[in-house]
Amino acid sequence: MTAYPKPPFPKQAQPVPGSQKKMDPYPDCGEQSYKGSGRLDGKIALITGADSGIGRAVAIAFAREGADVAVAYLNEDEDAQETARWVEQAGRQCLLLPGDLAQKAHCQALVDKTVERFGRIDVLVNNAAFQMTHEHFEDIPDEEWVMTFDVNITAIFRLCQAALKHMKPGSSIINTSSVNSDMPKPTLLPYATTKGAIANFTAGLGQMLGPKNIRVNCVAPGPIWTPLIVSTMPDEEVQNFGGQTPLGRPGQPVEVAPIYVLLASDEASYITGQRYGITGGKPML
Fold first, then answer.
1. How many CB atoms lie within 10 A of CB 241?
2. pTM as predicted
3. Can you list the domains of the chain with their CATH numbers?
4. pLDDT in tens, 75-85
5. Known active-site residue 270
6. Are 216 and 173 in contact (CB under 8 A)?
């Protein structure tokens, strides 16, 4: 609880989508610390937004638990190659899949290429997200609103539909929601709105897919130190990020990964349609 950095952090604005290698302090994605125990032996996982941050931490954890991983990302090639290096160092295969999730054809291609390489999908992790900060409602561009929905929720719908035919009983879908799903931060209005939609989508789809024995859950992180933060928030918020939580700091990606491992594993065989908060002590409704 006290091993990780607390704010204030240095000023470090980056252009969207941000680069993990340029962050100070450097996020801990479990590169040196996560220890696997075979909980996902032989599974195939497709993870979006896995070049950095939470997605990278999940990819590393899954690989060390025995899964082969397809890493979907936008265009952060250097970060994605670093993720692949850690996956392969764990003795697992890694497939890198760059492209824009806002495009319907790319969502289908992600599934097709994963199945072409690995034969099936056992775990789908919908983690990629876009956000921008706006102080005033009237300043939100229409095209940004649409893109936020396309990336954050419509892509999840499309990926789930495309992947479902390649998922067998016992498979798992894990969506990344947010503490904003029921406690929306007004300056992140489009993002927060999509995160509420993800929580609702998860609860409904979990019920729909229950008879197929395919589980659907979501994780709701609080303030986690990732490139999304330094590339989309004002300097002052970045400098003090996570300081208002009961633990007094932001979470590190490695601290979020274990709940994804649990939900992907057969140990979670009776868990579906649920949302799990990883918030540093901030209550959720």
1. 20
2. 0.97
3. 29-278 (3.40.50.720)
4. 999 999 999 99
5. no
6. yes
